[in-house]
Amino acid sequence: MKMLNAIKLMTHLLTRFTLGGKSTRSNRLALIAAGLAICGHALAQTPLEFYDSSIAADALLPVPLTPVATLTTPVVLTGTSGSAFDFGATSGEVTMEFILKGDPAFSTSSFLAVGTNNPKSRLMYEVWPSTLQLGFTEGGVADYLFTPGVASPTNDTHLAFVWNSTNLVMKVYVNGTLAGTASGVDAAFAMPTGWGWLGASDQGGSDGMRGTIYRVTVYGEMLSEQAIRRHSSAFGASVGPALAAYDTVITNDAASGLTPIAELTSSLVLNGSGGASFDFGAGGADGTMEFILEGDPSPTSDGSAFLAMGQVTTSSLRYNAWDNTGQLGFTQNHVADYLFSPGVPSPSLPTHITYAWNSATLTMKMYVNGVLAGTTTGVNSAFVMPSGLGLLGDDGGGAELMLGTIYRVTAYDSVLTDAAILRHGKAFGDLLSPPTILSFTVTPAAITAGQSATLSWTTKDALKVLVNGIDRTGITNLTVSPQISTRYTLTAQNALGATSSTIALQVNPNLSAYDAAIAADAAGGLAPLARLTNAVQTDGTGVPFNFGTNSGDATMEIILEGEPNPGTGTSIATDYDEATGLWRNSLRYSQWPTPGQIGFSLRGVNDYTFTPLVPSPNWPTHLTFVWDATAFVVKVYVNGSLAGENSAADPGCGLPTGQGTIGGDGMLGSIFRITSYSGKVPETKILSHSKAFLGAARPALNAYDNAIENSSAGGLNPAARLFAPVILTGAGGVNFFFGENSGDATMEFILEGDPTASVSAFLAVGATNTDSRLTYQAWPSTGQLGFTEGGVADYVLTPGVPSPTNATHITFAWSATTTTMKVYVNGILAGTRTGVSPLFALPSDVGVLGDSIPSGEPMVGTIHRVTAYDGLLPESAIVSHGMAFAGQPPAIALSTKDGVATIALSQGIPGAHYRVEYRNSLGAADNWQLLQDIPALVGTTAGVPDPTPIANHTSRLYHAVLVR
Description:
Strand content: 35-45%
Structural class: mainly beta
Number of strands: 68
Number of helices: 8
Largest sheet: 9 strands, antiparallel
Low-confidence stretches: 1-44
């Protein structure tokens, strides 16, 4: 074994082998730094020492990862004071690793790291108020949690905070696995730098943490996920219990006579700079070799990564078999590189694998966590299992290096029975396996709006379960009642990673009145060329459909909904030339290159949008495209009203005709109806069809639209309208034309949202005056509606007007003369603000709904309608518009008799759709569930008995909901 003059690093490995039935010890030192081969005396090391060695080894890489600051002596925090610490000189992108444990229940808020140069930017062990979650804060601006939430660790845990100062994104890794992300962070935030404090905001212990911080390692850059996982694996918090269980079963088997010939009993971290010497024992003709390992099988220039090679260097086991297969295998030089059948992927998470070699049958078997996963037969007779002094993770020449961690090696000079291999694999795998989703279903798969469905799931090895990002750990089913078709994503997590599964619940609007209107008109002579009469849920691949044959003028009505934030260039309907197989005319759900806007295309000629822009509808919406072949004009009507037109279409354009597809080019959503006509259908018929649809599907919005149209007939003409709902997910706003206004102005919204999603969220801003903005959630975290004049003031109302979480009619009435803003809720004056800066003005011309310009404070929720006026509306008009939507609010009363509760609903709207719902508590984990659905109220009252006896529960809450 060669010796070097300078030994920069020693990481000790403990090996045990047996000669002549007697157990002895032989110690080998790891080859960690590039080119180092070290001999010496081995010492048992703690997980913290292995972590320190991993950090030191990375500093010796050809491209070194050198910390700017480290804490190597544990700090015990009592919650009464902080511990001074120099975080080093950093700016911009930073990674900060911690090994710690604590008690998040000790206080309502506790700091983890604070730099005195920028004391407002702080990492938090427990975010205020008593969230029991990790996070960070920019004082006076926001307290940031992660999505999904990351619990404050109470046991020894490796954490890594990774700050991307360019994208303003913070990620946190728990035991090497990405656990949560926070985006849209305030640009003033920066990671702690220079002198500061651990575990409190200052020496006095303000917001003090109770716990122990064992290590802090600070880097002036964003570490790769591989480096973070390598450091975490060296510490081994996630695998500790499983390794202990494995060691116990190996020891017990040895006591019963199943004695290994060699063992690696402590972790070997391979950072890509070299492998480690290891004595595999004397070996024999047959052999079994068990490993517990994880690694990075990403393609490399070497094309292969060695796992184990003994003194016979022509035979080797491979972590990544040649040529970048990403699979386990083995090699006989100059003969063959062997894979298994079926293929066995190279494990990237801690996994127990077993190579079992039968020299008589020339067969190698591979077991994963004790279960046979693959077999190779017909192996060259020259192959032998590794024996004697050799290498782990290296080819002997410093190439084809494995990157990862080998936690254990156990070698036998015989073929173990399947039962023994399973016993060993289960000892480890039963305690530490990646989570799996065994089932995820929705019953029924389709409902009518207002009905409920049940999500059910079964998982294995999951420590945390989320449904659409909300923690549902501890339950296996959930009742849901979405108003629109919804995709649900189940995510199962544990320390080794996460897995997800997505299902869709189709929500069908009431289309009976629309179908009846089309049938009646057909009987009267307005017969469609083609109809889609069943709902199609689109997955983006396209569904065949024949649009009928038309030439010249044409009309096509479509009732659809789509996923939020549609991608660029998704299509609703496309026809194609059957001779060439190429599409010709396409109606676009999201137009290229103007995503989120309705449009149309002529292949090879142009992609068209409308003036004004027409947002892609996310809720069930009636769209009508009308093609004038003489004037070369395409008009689009949304819920019966003209929303936009394009008068510069190519003469070769037309609506889809003949054979084609619907829901292609990546469109996700539902197409409920298509009705295709030859010729231009009169506007009166388009409106009557739309009213038939909306009157049944969303009666409250239909009533509002009617009120706006009645006011318009009386001379109150809107400057701009949003005719169909748009969903805002917090990823950005939607382009919108607000019309022209100057001076006094009124803007009505019907909206709902989540004010807890951010500290501030914009509702509407015009591009011509980006400093004047309406806010859904006024800064900072007020939970109130408001408005702002950038650089001057953030205004809320007196009294405060809560940000609506259910669909609500909101009116902003701006008097430029008196510099006064009034806000009405469902037609009733709710708040006023006087003395506003004269610079303020309501949004005008083009702009954005649901975000700022530039993007930065997006809203989460749905804007169902916008109606803008150039002038102050009379209060009588505001009242009539608000009440048209809100209707008469239902009232409920509770009576009990014979141990049963009955809910009496009164003041209802005849024929309206109501849901009476219950819950057992106001806890966050408890949800409203359906007690009785009333599709059409008879009269104005109803009695709904609760079949569950009062004696069966300690509390019960009820409410009645008008389904809009």
